[in-house]
Amino acid sequence: MMMETLVHDYNAAEKIYGDSFLRAVTGEEAATLKKKLRFPEFQRQLKSQLKEKIQDMKDEGLLDKENNVTDKGLELASLVSTMQELDNLQTKGLGERKAKKVFRYGDKENVRKYRKGDRYQDLAIKSSIKTALRRGHTSLHPEDLTVYERSDKGKIHLIYALDASGSMKGNKLGLCKKAGIALAYKAIEEKDNVGLIVFGAKVQEVVEPTQDFALFLKALSRVKAKAQTDLAATIQKAIELFPRENVTKHLIIITDAVPTVGDNPEKTTLDYVEQAANQGITVSLIGISLDNESLSFAKKLIDIGKGRLYMLKNLENLDSIVLEDYYGLK
Predict the structure, then answer these.
(1) What gap in Å lies between CA 129 and CA 22, rounded to an integer?
(2) H or E, element range at 46
(3) Best exposed site among 194, 200, 262, 318 by fewest CB in 10 Å?
């Protein structure tokens, strides 16, 4: 199937498989590969080469007899994607968020008198010394001690909802996966929970908000692009997955199209967004090259969902946008 697509429509093959994947399996740069594919002897050589690579992957336990990716293959894919994205985060300087620092126990706010049981880490040293000096003390007395009050930063539960419809094939889906890795890594590092919903014509993958990074990665690595876009089912599933308690609940949707499944998909989707909003769930949308119709729908969605709308054409900075949305919750 890959050979047929390469020979008859190279541009389509590049969209489906992505430049980096084609380079890996053929050993050729895009421009060179496109020229060589015109020659029958090269086609025969390449077909033989692809068969050898498939057999090598079977020998290594990455593919089973039916050419399906094994658990070992999925784990390797997760590991490779993670390492690539973490290198990318470090290169871009996205390791630390630019917003104000949030402490595990909350932000430092006003000071008050020290009470038994307060954490010594919260002592307001300068304030305590000033109090002692005002009282004419040459050393700190217990009654001079003051501590910072900390506002509760609260627990954040996120769900990363990824469109895996047919138009997301190739490099587009790959970059979306890497952005999901960046989000999961930083959210879990901040002690927040992150979940996953992958949707096409129906919901394909679901991970309840968790701190299990490996679980999130394994589900993300299984994602393949196919079929249409059912946003309504995605938001309905998100409502089910979020906890009922009073915590920050936020859904990030990445899509390149309006919903296409159902009799009145846009109205059904907006109805579910309203249900989500009534349960304290905010919804942001990252739109990839949306047309005017899709943009109009996206604006209605985030207006009801009280989230943010991001419009992208270049996906190279997608991870920055996803993290910006997450940090905006702090």
Answers:
(1) 66
(2) helix 40-59
(3) 262
CB 12 within 8 A of CB 43: no
As a whole number of angstroms, the distance between CA 78 and CA 87 comes to: 14
Cβ–Cβ under 8 Å, residues 159 and 252: yes
Whose structure tokens read 């590049």?
Answer: 14
CB-CB contact of 130 with 111 (8 Å): no
Segment 182-216, tens digit of pLDDT: 999 999 988 899 999 999 878 889 999 999 998 99
Considering the entire predicted model, what is its pTM?
A: 0.67
> Rounded CA gap, 330 and 322, in Å?
14
Which residue do the tokens 């701190």 mark? 211
As given in the structure block, the two tokens for residue 18 are: 């992505």
Strands 248-255 and 156-163 come out as parallel
Task: Provide the mean pLDDT of the chain.
Answer: 85
CA dist 78 → 179, 188, 214, 215, 270 (Å): 13, 16, 8, 10, 34
Residue 209 has phi, psi (to 5 degrees) of -45, 125
- In the chain, ranges of CATH 3.40.50.410 domains: 154-327
CATH class of the domain at 154-327 = alpha beta
